[in-house]
Design brief:
This protein is an alpha/beta fold. The protein has helices spanning 13-25, 37-47, 64-74, and strands at 5-9, 29-34, 51-55, 79-82. It has a four-stranded parallel sheet with strand order 2-1-3-4, with helices on both faces. Helix 1 links the parallel strand 1 (5-9) and strand 2 (29-34). Helix 2 packs parallel to helix 3. The longest helix is centred in the N-terminal third of the chain and has 13 residues, at 13-25. It is globular.
């Protein structure tokens, strides 16, 4: 199996760490773990991950949905939107 480069976009540090640990246990690489939409865009442009796990609610001016739309303008990298909000 080839390890995928996964970027985690999550503003809750504990959730980001737990998700990163799970990704690593599955044999993949966490290319970046960031907490805002702008940081996600910057890291995305620098690192070009294979997959983005994106929280819908983020700190800062951009939410996860808007950030995903901006990423998808430049690339066809899959973005999985997730949320713990119910």
């Amino acid at each position: 199996m080839i390890a995928a480069r996964v970027m985690i976009v999550e503003d809750e540090a504990i959730t980001a760490m737990a998700t990163g640990a799970m990704i690593k246990r599955l044999g993949h690489v966490v290319s970046a773990a960031v907490g805002t939409g702008q940081d996600a865009l910057d890291a995305f442009r620098r690192q070009r991950p294979d997959l983005v796990l994106m929280d819908i609610r983020l700190d800062g001016d951009l939410d996860g949905i808007e950030t995903a739309k901006l990423m998808r303008r430049d690339s066809d990298v899959p973005v999985v939107l997730v949320s713990a909000f119910v």
